[in-house]
Structure formats: structure tokens, C-alpha cells
Automatic annotation (TrEMBL):
Keywords: ATP-binding, Nucleotide-binding
Protein name (Swiss-Prot/TrEMBL): Protein kinase domain-containing protein
Domain Protein kinase: 68-119
Record InterPro entries: Kinase-like_dom_sf, Prot_kinase_dom, Protein_kinase_ATP_BS, Rho-assoc_Ser/Thr_Kinase
Transmembrane segments: none
GO biological process: actomyosin structure organization; cortical actin cytoskeleton organization; embryonic morphogenesis; mitotic cytokinesis; regulation of cell junction assembly; Rho protein signal transduction
Keyword Nucleotide-binding carried by entry: yes
Annotated binding of ATP, by residue: 97
Gene3D superfamilies named among the record's database cross-references: Phosphorylase Kinase, domain 1
GO function terms (MF aspect): ATP binding; Rho-dependent protein serine/threonine kinase activity
PANTHER family reported in the protein's UniProt record: MYOTONIC DYSTROPHY S/T KINASE-RELATED (PTHR22988), RHO-ASSOCIATED PROTEIN KINASE (PTHR22988:SF73)
Length: 119
């Protein structure tokens, strides 16, 4: 069924329209629209009014670097370091890759520690 196919894409980590991508998109869109010249347009102002709070609550709920305690550096790449970290709520250990690029403060790539053990 088409509906099932769509739901499958929402939960597929490799899909460009998975939930994480859609949350990134709406967050970026709301933030990019918060420019006075754009906000003078009624449709943009309405859009921000509708989604600003949602985006704030999504940011508070999503996994973020502050949810992890850094244990040690386990690798270095061309753009940054890979840290061994522990998720403070679940106690699960992950590898966290931090990229230092001009246009981003911190990008993290979480990989289950079990994958490290299998390498
Ligand atoms: N999931 C992981 N588990 C254990 N060690 C890891 C993991 N990911 C990366 N590392 C370690 O960190 C090192 C650097 O990894 P990274 O992915 O940053 O390399 P890179 O591809 O050269 O980096 P960049 O993407 O910045 O070019 C790896 O060589 C490895 O030793």
C-alpha cells in the first residue's frame, strides 16, 4: 500500500525524507525565515508563528551533544576528532564524530559502540 511505503521512508535512516531529515528541514526553514525582510510577508510571518514553538520543542527533545559525556578521544580525521561518549540517560556508549567546519558548530555522527567492537 502507498501509505505503508511512505511510512517506510519516514523510518528508513537512508531515506532523504526520514523523520530526522524532515525535522532538520523544518528547523532550518523556520530559522532561515526569521529575517525582517522576509517576515514582512504575511505568509512567511504566518509560517513562523505556526512552527516556531514546534521547532523549539523539537530541539529540546532531539538527541544532542549535551546528552553525552565525553570519555576519551579514540580517533582523528581530516576535519575533527572521534570521541568515545556515554549517553547519560541510557548509559549506552557511542562513538561521536565532531566535525569542525566553518559553517557548522558541531556535527555529530552517532554509531553504536557495538559496531566498534565488531570491527
Ligand atoms: N565508530 C567508530 N568506532 C571506533 N573508532 C572510530 C569510529 N569512527 C571513527 N573512528 C576512529 O576515528 C578515526 C577517524 O575517523 P574519521 O571518520 O573522522 O576519519 P576520516 O574519514 O578520515 O575523517 P573525515 O570525515 O574528517 O575526513 C578512524 O580512523 C578511527 O580510528
Amino acid at each position: 500500500m502507498e501509505q505503508d511505503e511512505l511510512l517506510q521512508q519516514l523510518v528508513d535512516p537512508k531515506s532523504p525524507i526520514n523523520i530526522e531529515s524532515l525535522l532538520d528541514t523544518i528547523t532550518a526553514l523556520v530559522n532561515d525565515c526569521k529575517i525582517p525582510v522576509l517576515m514582512r510577508m504575511k505568509s512567511v510571518d504566518n509560517f513562523i508563528s505556526r512552527y516556531e514553538r514546534v521547532v523549539e520543542s523539537v530541539a529540546a527533545l532531539r538527541m544532542k551533544a549535551a546528552d553525552f559525556r565525553q570519555l576519551k578521544v579514540i580517533g582523528r580525521g581530516a576535519f575533527g576528532e572521534v570521541h568515545l561518549v556515554r549517553h547519560t540517560k541510557t548509559n549506552t556508549v557511542y562513538a561521536m564524530k565532531m566535525l569542525n567546519k566553518d559553517d557548522m558548530v558541531c556535527v555529530v555522527d552517532f554509531l553504536d559502540f557495538r559496531l566498534i567492537l565488531q570491527c
